[in-house]
Amino acid sequence: MGPEPATDEELLAAFSQASADEQRHLADQLFERHYAHVARWCFRITGDRDVAADVAQNVFIKAYRHLGDFRGASRFSTWLYAIVRHESFAYLRTHARDPIGVDDDVLVAVPTDDAGPEAQAVRDSNGRFAHQVLLDTLDDTERAVFVLHYGDDLPLDAVTRTLQLTNTSGAKAYIVSAKRKLARAVKRIAARRGTL
Amino acid sequence: MTTRMSRNGDRVGGEWRQALETGPSCLALERLGEPLSAIEAAHVTGCVRCQTERAMFESYEASEPLEGEGLSVAWIAQRARRAVQDGAAAPRPARPTVAVPVVAAPATRPRLPRWALAAASLAVVLGGATLLWNPAPSVAPVAPGDVYRASRVEITWPAGDIDAPPAEVRFTAVPGAVEYEVRLTEVDGTELWRVSTSAPAALVPVSVAAFALPAKTLIVQVTARDAQQRVLAESGDVRFRVQAR
Description:
The structure holds 2 protein chains of 2 kinds. Chain A is built from 9 helices and 1 strand, in the order αααααβαααα. By secondary structure, chain A is mainly alpha-helical. The N and C termini of chain A lie far apart (about 75 Å). In chain B, the strands form 2 sheets. In chain B, strands 3, 5, 6, 8, 9 and 10 form a 6-stranded mixed sheet that branches. A 3-stranded antiparallel sheet of chain B has the order 2-4-7, covered by helices on one side. By secondary structure, chain B is α+β, with helices and mostly antiparallel strands. In chain B, about 30% of the residues lie in helices and about 20% in strands. The longest helix of chain B is centred in the middle third of the chain and has 20 residues, at about 115-135. Chain B has helices at about 5-20, 40-45, 50-60, 70-85, 115-135, 205-210; strands at about 5, 155, 160, 170, 180-185, 190-195, 200-205, 215-225, 230-235, 240. The chains are: A mainly alpha, B alpha+beta. At the A-B interface, helix 2, helix 3, helix 4, helix 5 and strand 1 of A face strand 1, helix 1, helix 3 and helix 4 of B.
């Protein structure tokens, strides 16, 4: 046998040609480069060592089972990240202690540009318009918190850990300020329409 | 304090969720680390979803060890390593499509050792005999409106590290309960099996037990209900795993 393959991609190429026993050895070699990284992410995102171990274990078992499907369209680490993200978010959504909710103040409605009568066209464009309002109104952290909390149903404590927010109240502070800013923006949009 | 959304809040939250969903032009997760084409770059500029995904991916890629997490991370990595080395090569059992209440046998069933089959057979015989001797479970009188949520179902088997896939789930009886719902899930909440039983035990079909791969943690839950289908007690999540040999 020649020298050990040096890159992830070379190991994967060898994997596709190998016998079952060799495949296990090659997968182990490949994963060895990623165990700590995945473990760290799972630990940070779940905030619990045992849960993180379960999630990380599932990530690698799924990665192993689907390794033969990897077509090399991306780096292996990116492909693995897709599994990590899916597994960890699925866990967080399923085991959220608190339902996704609003605090005392109600979340503002999605801003729309639906002045015209063509409802379907408006519905299609609402998402884009809402994105533009979020881009114009919120800062980077507020946007990320908003997307993870309202778009991905992640509980706020998980958002805090995922984004490694170090302020005292974590993601909650960003959600509060985001909602306040959005409410003001929606009012401005409504006022502009009123003057048209 | 966080409260469950009102109906209006649900609607508004649902609209936001829809607005923030991944769209057809959004980057696939596998593209996050790749150089963007002009079209992709133009899309990302106006898409908060893609911007968030990219930021999260960059944070994942760049994450450096923090002080105090080293031991935990090493332990988690070791668990994952063991799972791959001990369990990943095992044949993959087919997942039942409908888990309630009977699980269809998978087309290709992983071979189980003889002792496991023997244990399952014995459990079937014992379970059947128990039902024959005591066809009606004893039911303690329940006053109307009484709810025994304070009580708890204690799962006595399986729990913790076990030597072989479980042939049955056993738990303590709850006064007033006429039905127990037993669920087996993966740690991410994916349901593998669910069954209702009137006795404080449920036989685990061999095809379901096959999901208990070595070193893979599964969760079992039991909910006790009264004749009006009110929940009397729950077990909470009880984790178990078959020890890797």
